[in-house]
What does this fold into?
Amino acid sequence: MIQAVVGGKGTGKTKTLVNMANKALDETKGEIVFISGEKRRMFELNHRIRLVKLREFDIKDLKMFYGFLNGLVAQNYDIERIYIDGLLEFIKEDITSFADFLSDVDSISKKFNIRFIITMNGDPDSVPTFLKEYIA
It folds into this structure.
């Protein structure tokens, strides 16, 4: 399952995502991974959640990031949830290339029973059609 949290800059998406991840500790038995390009608010993230600072890796595009996600899953089959904060902020690609990426991530999600929660800047009412099915 993929869930998108879409909102304007400064609307509290990161704080919402951190709170969701912390709350998920009570709901899951497996591992939780939080991927962020920034260091902000990470002091509020529970220490039992694995924090991955994406800027430490040389990820240039969505294909590389997809490979990175596969590597995370291959390394730890106990992952139940992956939270990705501000994906389009640290990977500079057009929103239209995001459709194929989401399709690929959906395959990982179904195959390994992992829930992906992704934040993105934008207006929830004007997102492309392919993204609307993921907005909660």
